[in-house]
Amino acid sequence: MAAKTTFENLPEEKRARIVEAAIEEFGAHPYASASTNRIVKAAGISKGSMYQYFENKSALYRWLVWEHAAQVKGRYVSAKAYGEAMETGDLLGFLRVAMRGGVVFTLDHPRLARAALRLMEGSADEELGRMKEEHLRMGEQVMRMFVEKGQRMGKLDPDLDPELVSPLIAHATGPMLVDAMMVKMGTTLDGYLNRPEEWTRMTEAEIDGFVDGVMMILERGLAPKPA
Amino acid sequence: MAAKTTFENLPEEKRARIVEAAIEEFGAHPYASASTNRIVKAAGISKGSMYQYFENKSALYRWLVWEHAAQVKGRYVSAKAYGEAMETGDLLGFLRVAMRGGVVFTLDHPRLARAALRLMEGSADEELGRMKEEHLRMGEQVMRMFVEKGQRMGKLDPDLDPELVSPLIAHATGPMLVDAMMVKMGTTLDGYLNRPEEWTRMTEAEIDGFVDGVMMILERGLAPKPA
Amino acid sequence: MAAKTTFENLPEEKRARIVEAAIEEFGAHPYASASTNRIVKAAGISKGSMYQYFENKSALYRWLVWEHAAQVKGRYVSAKAYGEAMETGDLLGFLRVAMRGGVVFTLDHPRLARAALRLMEGSADEELGRMKEEHLRMGEQVMRMFVEKGQRMGKLDPDLDPELVSPLIAHATGPMLVDAMMVKMGTTLDGYLNRPEEWTRMTEAEIDGFVDGVMMILERGLAPKPA
Amino acid sequence: MAAKTTFENLPEEKRARIVEAAIEEFGAHPYASASTNRIVKAAGISKGSMYQYFENKSALYRWLVWEHAAQVKGRYVSAKAYGEAMETGDLLGFLRVAMRGGVVFTLDHPRLARAALRLMEGSADEELGRMKEEHLRMGEQVMRMFVEKGQRMGKLDPDLDPELVSPLIAHATGPMLVDAMMVKMGTTLDGYLNRPEEWTRMTEAEIDGFVDGVMMILERGLAPKPA
DNA sequence: CATGAATGAGGTTTCATTCAT
DNA sequence: CATGAATGAAACCTCATTCAT
């Protein structure tokens, strides 16, 4: 939707170079400061070519975070788990899966994760503004659905206001999660990106412990009141 | 620290014009897109003057969010409450005060709040990067202090990992709070800024209910396990 | 001359699509701003194909106004009338026929007329410059021939300087005519093109009256002095 | 109105260099093809400076033709003659003065005249489109005023339709005049600009004869019918 | 004969900052 | 202390045309 067919048809190697360059640039600079000039130079293609592949700068970014990042991240959260959670209304179960996936995705692809997070920063670009609003709306809808289902099934406190819980959860599993993760590693996402060799990646066990910690707080916070 | 003495000595009226113009600009555009040219034009001063008052663009922004915004926001959170909470280790009590203050501050000064939130967006400017890191570190330290004190006093679950809880709380009382607030009003912060007349401000009662809602989740989530 | 044989041999439907797209583009934009990219996109052909049909941008334009527009316009001015006027030296009779044809052609094909008028605007393209010069020279020659014949036959004032009268007539029956016509309709050619539905086309009677008005001025102005 | 005060305050010598460069460029290329890059290079100023003097490209052009050219041309048509013609309703007398001024202006400043004529060519720029429409409207109003006054005073045929006569006269004293003049000199305006040394300027006597020739046609064409 | 990816020069404009007055 | 003209790098994007397939 965001990339032209020209881009889809590119030889894998060239396509990869462009993707890599874009991730690098949008990962390192806010959207407004990211430079298409630098991207094409790093990718070794001409300025004109980039505009054969993408309508404009915002279309490139859109593709990167909405299609590419989404697809890569999708590999970390199984569709099965999502489906099961939907059926059973198991919000918390789903959150655990989603958070774990998010953590590992961020550790495996920190620059891409950083680039995607920038969507929330807002920008002068109208297109980006719309993307942000839509992303927020969609996230909120999904969360609200889960919350309401969970309440109906008696797994969440029925007195909780879904309008309040859904953004809380969206944050808890998105930006806040990344922040906490980095605090846990003793750095920040930007610091991690600048000198990745300096920090040791969380082990699987640490990841589990970390996710359990957050989950425990959410579970207790959202559970129905004991009779 | 960020502003030169020339700026401090300015006639109140002129100073106010500059502050107002800066809030407007940094509230409406990401840091990189914010234009000093537009600010001086809106403030009715010369470009040279601006550089007499502030070293450069980032110094102006630094002053705006670290000195001005902090001072304005300080009026919404009484020092007394902060002190009492420190003494009693009453993290939750403090959070309630802080959140309420944050909500009202955001409603009273939405553009300034938006400008300040942009600090977290990261930027190409190194100075700003340092500011962001420092802001995060400081926030975390304060929170950690509270958490550890609360645990020692038996008011928080001693098994909670402070490294995990502090960023969670920082988010819950910062960006997440603003998001949730805006969802509650049916908009987003940017939407609210673009068309302020379109949305009705939360009433005092609504604010209380909103804060109570968040607090209840935190209280239950962080409380010591029942024996 | 301007189009390659490949273009002439094209299936009618495809050829029509290209012509239509070119008229649209050259009618809407000055030559320099007109975009071959947009034309091929609108026509649904490949860029390479366009260069199989026409040497380059200026050849396409050349064909459009010198071959296509000339042919279409020719349908509005009968060859018979032209021949008769030539034989009888009836400049004024010919002008009446030519003006009426020009008016109806412009009303029937306003975009094509606009595209053709652009030739007179001059351009950075050398080829176009030559076209313009040649067009002017040819028009002037025809007019001069008529004027001199008319003078010899006693239908025009013999004191008139043909070098002066011929460009006057060329304008009166070309750009000036179109302008006057549009003033009569209460708009301009560009305004008419932008919102064609907004203006009501001149009726046949109005066209006749309009042409008669211009002719009357020319007749009196160019007639031999009464003895 | 079109130029910023920055430009008005410039040292005469620098200002002249810029004006000269702009005339050269807009005289030699259609508006869309004219390049601000070439102008600043020729004028020996920086790109940024040009944008301190003028809002943008169209503002520069606007100033050049609406303020500068108008002022220069004004020197060739005395305000006194204009005023007198207004009082006496002497359209033809005014036209003679205006045409003579136009001819000499064009001979003295052919590139500036060419640049100004380009306004009528239409362009992709919206601002320019508005300029053109306004210019046409204004010219037509002035002409119509003259025509109606001339008719009331019995100097023009009362049966003439002002809506038809005014664009005719506007052309006759504008683009058509320049064309005819150049035909008289055996060239075209563009040919004259490219190789000015090749053509000999009309003498004063020739100019008078030329203007008389056009005037005679108009006089007879517009005069009231003899009783 | 058709295709459409590739090109890179060039377009206009904005920017933060300096410094002579 | 105030001014605002000057700067030139950099921004995003479009263009007509070519040529290998």
Q: Your description of this structure?
A:
The structure is a homotetramer of 227-residue chains. With 227 residues, the first copy, chain A, is an all-alpha fold. Chain A folds into two domains: 5-64, Homeodomain-like (Arc Repressor Mutant, subunit A, Orthogonal Bundle), CATH 1.10.10; 75-222, Tetracycline Repressor, domain 2. The first copy, chain A, is built from 13 helices and no strands. Chain A has helices spanning 5-8, 12-28, 36-43, 47-53, 57-74, 79-88, 91-108, 110-117, 126-152, 162-172, 175-185, 189-194, 204-222. In chain A, helix 5 (57-74) crosses helix 8 (110-117) and helix 7 packs antiparallel against helix 13 (204-222). The longest helix of chain A is centred in the middle third of the chain and has 27 residues, at 126-152. Chain A is globular and about 70 Å long. The termini of chain A are far apart. The model of chain A has no long low-confidence stretch (mean pLDDT 90). The first copy, chain A, binds a DNA duplex (21 and 21 nucleotides) through helix 4.
